[in-house]
Amino acid sequence: MNNILAFLAETNNSGAAVLLGVRIALATLILVATAFIIYVVMKQSGNSDGMEAMSGAKRSDDSETYYGKNAGSRKEARLKKLTYIAAGVLAVCCIVFILLQGIF
Q1: Is residue 9 part of a domain?
Q2: Measuring CA to CA, which residue among 48, 37, 47, 44 is closest to residue 78?
Q3: What whole-number distance in Å separates Cα of residue 85 and Cα of residue 99?
Q4: Residue 35 has pLDDT above 70, yes or no
């Protein structure tokens, strides 16, 4: 924190202060996107059935209605889409952050 305050005190250039604010905002967005990706990936189910496949047991959480049969796939598709969006935001923010590091 002292380095940031010293940097602001030494420079009278408002462009450097704006650049520092953008870096801080990007770092915050990177942290939020990373935490969101971790959360969304943990919410998704795996592709394999795990131990159920070995024992030959069927999944008992399927409902008899059309909505119940497809509810899981809609949820998984939404979580997968959110993962792709968050990963894209994270990638763009990291690239911009690296490019801004080269300026100063």
Answers
A1: no
A2: 44
A3: 21
A4: yes
C-beta separation of 90 from 30 below 8 A: yes
Both structure tokens of 29: 């967005």
Give the residue from 102, 85, 83 showing the smallest Cα distance to 42. Answer: 83
Residue 96 phi/psi, 5-degree rounding, is -65, -40
Tokens 């030959």 appear where?
A: 56
CA distance linking residue 5 with residue 20, whole number of Å: 11
CA distances from 81 to 25, 74, 78 (A): 24, 11, 5
Which pLDDT value is given to residue 73?
79
| 86: containing domain | 19-44+74-104
